[in-house]
Amino acid sequence: MSFEKVRGLNGDSEKEIGELIKKYDRDPSLHNGRSLSKRLLRGLYSLTMYRENEWLDEIDSQSKVTSIYFPLLSEQINTLVSVISDKDEPDKLFKSDSSKLYRFILINSAMTIINIREEKQYIPQVSEWIYNEFISGKIPDVSQQKIEEAIEKRQSDVIPMTFIAKIGSCCIGTISLFKNDLHERTDLSPWLAALYVSKEWRGIGLGTLLIECIERITVKAGYNKLYLRTEEAAEYYSKLCWTQIDSLVDEYGQGVKVFGKELKGIHQKIYHNHNLNLKGSCSRRDAVRAVISQNNKYLLIYSSQKGDYKFPGGGVEPGESFNQALEREVLEESGYRITEIGTQIALISEFSESREEELDYFQMDSHYFHCTIDLGEKLELNLDKYELDLNFEPLWISLEEAISANKKVMNGRAESPSWTERETFFLEYLTKSD
After folding, report:
1. Among 236, 252, 394, 193, residue whose Cα is nearest residue 313
2. pTM, whole model, 2 decimals?
3. In the predicted model, is pLDDT for residue 3 greater than 90?
4. Is residue 406 packed enough to be buried (19+ CB in 10 Å), middle (13-18) or exposed (0-12)?
5. How far is CA 344 from the centre of its chain?
């Protein structure tokens, strides 16, 4: 189907384009359920919201993104949608157009980042990249074969780990997580290492996506700090909010700058209304949400009345700490007592209309934390009236099952709960971190 028939645009309005692409993405009758088409359209949608993606600065400048992208929408969108609607082969897609913008859309839609243990055939290529970029002429007595052997021995869930970015059968980048990457600073751990992006895929944010992947993996492994060494890319990492903590000469005579970063997970913004005056006055509330897993299943709160899943948690009461609120909410909604509160994984900020007429908008900040519970004792639930009306009950369920149920609710005729979009986003985020 022609995108022109779907969009009915009166102009290249950012909000209008974003909403219509979102509508196209969610309506199976318009794309026949082709998963790749849907992901590519999400890539287009994410680009319309470029102001929320700081890493887009890597495409020269935000002004250049504007001047390139909106003419593309008005003149070439039908051609692009026709291509992605007719083909499900990622290899064919990125070979059909080599433009920088098109590759940007692809890495935000058709790309996957996986542990190299899942696709071991890429080990020789990744080893060659690492050897040529970081070893050859710099570190003696280390051959490409030794690097291959080291990667071959790595496990899927134990540091050191190596990840690759791929579209279809094409590997386009790699990154690793080491216990240590500098003999002179064995007091620091873990380390981001061996970041490499294939030359034709540089300058469109892929390096940042690989770094964010390692940051998520590091947080999931229970660390709240991450380190790296660099000889030439200090400015690049400074722009990504890394802080230089040391400067030294390593055992091979190379000048090295050491950077560190405090990890608090991702920060995502969700706008329930795009016409809000965000420069005006607002009311704001913090909420906490517990991420509790066991045997690849998560403890979620299910509403049999609506059919959706959410993480246990809720608003922080006046005078309550985050930890106190987590312990109270989890006990009330699930009957389990928290035994340990770990690192914060994510902060999701939601913006919506304020119920108070004198205020311009309402902001809810949801903080997600790793938690463990005492499975030996389960108490009675203590639910609020609205929670009773929604028939809340705690269930152990896989991420995929919860995502499927939530999307069914969101795409249904009845109005979905206000939190379903947020919770579905975070559920999908967790699948990418696994």
Report:
1. 394
2. 0.53
3. no
4. buried
5. 14
